[in-house]
Amino acid sequence: MISADLHIHSIYSDGKLTPEQIVNKAKEADLSAVSITDHDTIDGIQLAITASKKIGDIEVIPGVEISTEYQQDEVHILGYFIDYNSNYLKNILKNLQSKRKLRIRKIIKKLNDIGIYITLEEVCKTSTSSSIGRPHIAEILKQKNYVKNISEAFDLYLGKGKKAYVPREKLSPCDAIKIIKNSKGIPVLAHPGHLERPEVINKLVMYGIEGLEVYHKDHNKEQTLFYSQFAKKNELLITGGSDCHGNSPLLIGEYGIDKLLLNKLKEHSKKYTF
Length: 274
Ligand code: AMP
Ligand code: ZN
Ligand code: FE
Ligand code: FE
Description:
Distance between the termini: 31 Å
Largest sheet: 5 strands, mixed
Number of strands: 8
Order of helices and strands: EHEHEEEHHHHHEHEHEH
Bound molecules: adenosine monophosphate, zinc ion, fe (iii) ion
Strand order of the largest sheet: 4-5-6-7-8
Strand content: 15-25%
Number of helices: 10
């Protein structure tokens, strides 16, 4: 039985639900723990914790999902039990967010140059996000009928190599692992099934990754089994989550880990309290 869904995005990155709504949905799904893992921001965590105290019987595990790049491939690193009050972490994330804003300006310029008229104000207005990204631009393109849906926005303009693609300056996975460890967190490789070159996983083990997101909505049975065995062989923690962005079907609580794995993760997080 699933006890914890440890991968959810809120309105503080590119999700549609508030942290309070996420905690409520997690409670409705009978979970004992939930983690909000926004892209490059921890701004939703305190609100989620406050909501959990009000609702009761549900734990919020402080989380984050850092986008990194390894030899031009995108690699996402999750951090759990991070110290979300740490100024060190806040400053690093703030810097990543400014780089995101800079990139958004460049994307808008490229779109304008090919006759697609959207403005930075429009993109920022629709969003409470501290971590603005391509999904926010895609939303405006949809609203202004330049595309039929979000997928088309990526296929025509925003995806890698497309007309308005701008690469973002990213950290390396090794840096992200260090940052998470320096913030007392547990670094976990997100959705290994998304890796463009699966062998990258061996490098991450060398760099000190401590867990693998075995259970994820995009993993099929074979991948789940493979990564579960890989984690056991390499003595890595096992995590899981829905990667819910607030779309329908919501999926909160449909992917995640059971009590036993949750306890192992919690136990591991205590290493910093000694
Ligand atoms: P960014 O952080 O700005 O690079 O945007 C990355 C986010 O865009 C990912 O986390 C996904 O949520 C979303 N995304 C990436 N590719 C696609 C796609 N082909 N269709 C829809 N959403 C996508
Ligand atoms: Zn996302
Ligand atoms: Fe991701
Ligand atoms: Fe995610």
